[in-house]
Amino acid sequence: MAFAGAGLGFTGGAAVGGGGGLFAALPLILGAGNAIASYIGGQQSQDFSNQQAQNLEKAGQLNAAQVAVNRRKLAGEQRVAAAASGVVVSVGSPLDVMMDSFLLGLIEEVAVRFNFNSRAEAVRAQGRIAAEAGAFQAGQAVLGGILGAFDRGLFATAAPSTSPAPTIPASTTTRSGGFLVLGGEAGV
E-assigned strands of the chain? Predict the structure, then answer.
Protein backbone atom coordinates (compact mmCIF):
# COMPACT_ATOMS: atom_id res chain seq x y z
CA MET A 1 0.00 0.00 0.00
CA ALA A 2 1.57 3.30 -1.07
CA PHE A 3 0.74 6.79 0.20
CA ALA A 4 1.53 9.31 -2.50
CA GLY A 5 -0.57 12.11 -1.01
CA ALA A 6 1.00 14.97 0.92
CA GLY A 7 4.48 13.93 -0.21
CA LEU A 8 4.84 11.37 2.57
CA GLY A 9 6.93 8.93 0.55
CA PHE A 10 6.01 5.92 2.70
CA THR A 11 5.42 2.54 1.07
CA GLY A 12 3.93 -0.35 2.95
CA GLY A 13 4.80 1.17 6.33
CA ALA A 14 8.51 1.62 5.57
CA ALA A 15 10.17 4.84 4.58
CA VAL A 16 11.80 5.01 1.17
CA GLY A 17 15.42 3.99 1.58
CA GLY A 18 14.80 1.65 4.50
CA GLY A 19 13.65 2.35 8.04
CA GLY A 20 10.45 1.90 9.90
CA GLY A 21 8.25 4.65 8.49
CA LEU A 22 5.92 6.87 10.43
CA PHE A 23 5.75 4.41 13.34
CA ALA A 24 9.53 4.60 13.69
CA ALA A 25 9.42 8.41 13.51
CA LEU A 26 6.91 8.63 16.35
CA PRO A 27 9.55 8.87 19.15
CA LEU A 28 11.32 11.61 17.20
CA ILE A 29 8.09 13.56 16.76
CA LEU A 30 7.09 13.11 20.41
CA GLY A 31 10.60 13.98 21.55
CA ALA A 32 10.47 17.23 19.59
CA GLY A 33 7.08 18.08 21.09
CA ASN A 34 8.32 17.34 24.60
CA ALA A 35 11.43 19.41 23.96
CA ILE A 36 9.39 22.41 22.90
CA ALA A 37 7.07 22.05 25.89
CA SER A 38 9.98 21.72 28.33
CA TYR A 39 11.78 24.74 26.91
CA ILE A 40 8.68 26.93 26.88
CA GLY A 41 7.77 25.80 30.41
CA GLY A 42 11.20 26.80 31.68
CA GLN A 43 10.99 30.19 29.99
CA GLN A 44 7.52 30.82 31.41
CA SER A 45 8.75 29.90 34.90
CA GLN A 46 11.60 32.37 34.52
CA ASP A 47 9.22 35.10 33.32
CA PHE A 48 6.90 34.45 36.27
CA SER A 49 9.84 34.54 38.69
CA ASN A 50 11.05 37.83 37.24
CA GLN A 51 7.58 39.32 37.69
CA GLN A 52 7.49 38.11 41.31
CA ALA A 53 10.94 39.62 41.88
CA GLN A 54 9.79 42.97 40.52
CA ASN A 55 6.76 42.84 42.82
CA LEU A 56 9.03 42.11 45.80
CA GLU A 57 11.28 45.04 44.91
CA LYS A 58 8.27 47.36 44.67
CA ALA A 59 6.96 46.08 48.01
CA GLY A 60 10.41 46.69 49.51
CA GLN A 61 10.41 50.26 48.23
CA LEU A 62 6.94 50.87 49.66
CA ASN A 63 7.84 49.36 53.03
CA ALA A 64 11.10 51.33 53.17
CA ALA A 65 9.19 54.53 52.34
CA GLN A 66 6.76 53.76 55.18
CA VAL A 67 9.68 53.25 57.56
CA ALA A 68 11.12 56.62 56.45
CA VAL A 69 7.77 58.33 57.08
CA ASN A 70 7.57 56.74 60.54
CA ARG A 71 11.18 57.78 61.25
CA ARG A 72 10.48 61.42 60.37
CA LYS A 73 7.22 61.34 62.32
CA LEU A 74 8.98 59.97 65.42
CA ALA A 75 11.71 62.64 65.15
CA GLY A 76 9.06 65.36 64.98
CA GLU A 77 7.15 63.92 67.96
CA GLN A 78 10.35 63.72 70.01
CA ARG A 79 11.24 67.32 69.15
CA VAL A 80 7.76 68.56 70.08
CA ALA A 81 7.66 66.59 73.34
CA ALA A 82 11.10 67.82 74.40
CA ALA A 83 10.32 71.43 73.50
CA ALA A 84 6.99 71.26 75.33
CA SER A 85 8.78 70.24 78.52
CA GLY A 86 11.19 73.15 78.20
CA VAL A 87 14.23 71.12 77.12
CA VAL A 88 16.56 72.64 74.56
CA VAL A 89 16.64 70.07 71.76
CA SER A 90 19.51 71.49 69.70
CA VAL A 91 22.31 70.41 72.06
CA GLY A 92 23.23 67.71 74.59
CA SER A 93 21.38 64.53 75.52
CA PRO A 94 18.04 65.38 73.84
CA LEU A 95 19.86 65.89 70.53
CA ASP A 96 21.76 62.61 71.03
CA VAL A 97 18.50 60.72 71.67
CA MET A 98 16.88 62.20 68.55
CA MET A 99 19.95 61.41 66.43
CA ASP A 100 20.02 57.83 67.73
CA SER A 101 16.33 57.41 66.88
CA PHE A 102 16.94 58.91 63.44
CA LEU A 103 19.90 56.58 62.76
CA LEU A 104 18.00 53.52 63.98
CA GLY A 105 15.20 54.47 61.60
CA LEU A 106 17.70 54.74 58.72
CA ILE A 107 19.15 51.35 59.60
CA GLU A 108 15.67 49.84 59.64
CA GLU A 109 14.89 51.43 56.27
CA VAL A 110 18.06 49.98 54.72
CA ALA A 111 17.37 46.57 56.28
CA VAL A 112 13.85 46.51 54.82
CA ARG A 113 15.19 47.32 51.35
CA PHE A 114 17.95 44.72 51.69
CA ASN A 115 15.55 41.98 52.83
CA PHE A 116 13.11 42.55 49.98
CA ASN A 117 15.90 42.83 47.40
CA SER A 118 17.48 39.61 48.71
CA ARG A 119 14.17 37.79 48.40
CA ALA A 120 13.74 39.20 44.88
CA GLU A 121 17.18 37.91 43.86
CA ALA A 122 16.40 34.47 45.30
CA VAL A 123 13.19 34.35 43.25
CA ARG A 124 15.11 35.43 40.12
CA ALA A 125 17.65 32.68 40.76
CA GLN A 126 14.83 30.14 40.97
CA GLY A 127 13.57 31.41 37.63
CA ARG A 128 16.99 31.05 36.05
CA ILE A 129 17.27 27.52 37.41
CA ALA A 130 13.82 26.68 36.02
CA ALA A 131 14.79 28.02 32.60
CA GLU A 132 18.03 26.03 32.61
CA ALA A 133 16.17 22.90 33.73
CA GLY A 134 13.65 23.40 30.91
CA ALA A 135 16.46 23.69 28.37
CA PHE A 136 18.16 20.60 29.79
CA GLN A 137 14.90 18.63 29.70
CA ALA A 138 14.39 19.80 26.12
CA GLY A 139 17.78 18.39 25.20
CA GLN A 140 16.95 15.13 26.94
CA ALA A 141 13.65 14.91 25.07
CA VAL A 142 15.33 15.47 21.71
CA LEU A 143 18.03 12.91 22.47
CA GLY A 144 15.42 10.44 23.72
CA GLY A 145 13.41 10.94 20.56
CA ILE A 146 16.43 10.37 18.35
CA LEU A 147 17.42 7.25 20.28
CA GLY A 148 13.84 5.97 20.16
CA ALA A 149 13.75 6.53 16.41
CA PHE A 150 17.03 4.61 16.06
CA ASP A 151 15.56 1.77 18.14
CA ARG A 152 12.58 1.60 15.80
CA GLY A 153 14.77 1.62 12.71
CA LEU A 154 13.97 5.07 11.32
CA PHE A 155 17.56 5.73 10.34
CA ALA A 156 18.31 2.21 9.03
CA THR A 157 19.76 2.32 5.50
CA ALA A 158 20.39 -1.32 4.69
CA ALA A 159 19.14 -4.72 5.73
CA PRO A 160 21.41 -6.56 8.18
CA SER A 161 23.80 -9.08 6.64
CA THR A 162 22.70 -12.70 6.86
CA SER A 163 26.13 -14.17 6.06
CA PRO A 164 28.21 -15.36 9.03
CA ALA A 165 31.34 -13.50 10.07
CA PRO A 166 34.54 -14.88 8.53
CA THR A 167 36.56 -17.17 10.78
CA ILE A 168 40.33 -17.57 10.85
CA PRO A 169 41.61 -21.13 11.30
CA ALA A 170 43.56 -21.58 14.53
CA SER A 171 46.53 -23.11 12.68
CA THR A 172 47.35 -19.82 10.92
CA THR A 173 47.55 -17.58 14.00
CA THR A 174 50.48 -17.11 16.38
CA ARG A 175 51.30 -14.73 19.19
CA SER A 176 54.42 -12.60 19.00
CA GLY A 177 55.17 -10.10 21.75
CA GLY A 178 51.51 -9.68 22.71
CA PHE A 179 50.35 -9.22 19.09
CA LEU A 180 48.21 -11.64 17.15
CA VAL A 181 49.86 -12.42 13.85
CA LEU A 182 47.80 -13.90 11.05
CA GLY A 183 49.31 -16.40 8.64
CA GLY A 184 52.66 -17.20 10.22
CA GLU A 185 55.58 -15.68 12.12
CA ALA A 186 55.94 -12.05 13.04
CA GLY A 187 58.48 -10.15 11.00
CA VAL A 188 60.59 -7.28 12.20
Answer: 2-3, 10-11, 14-15, 173-176, 179-182
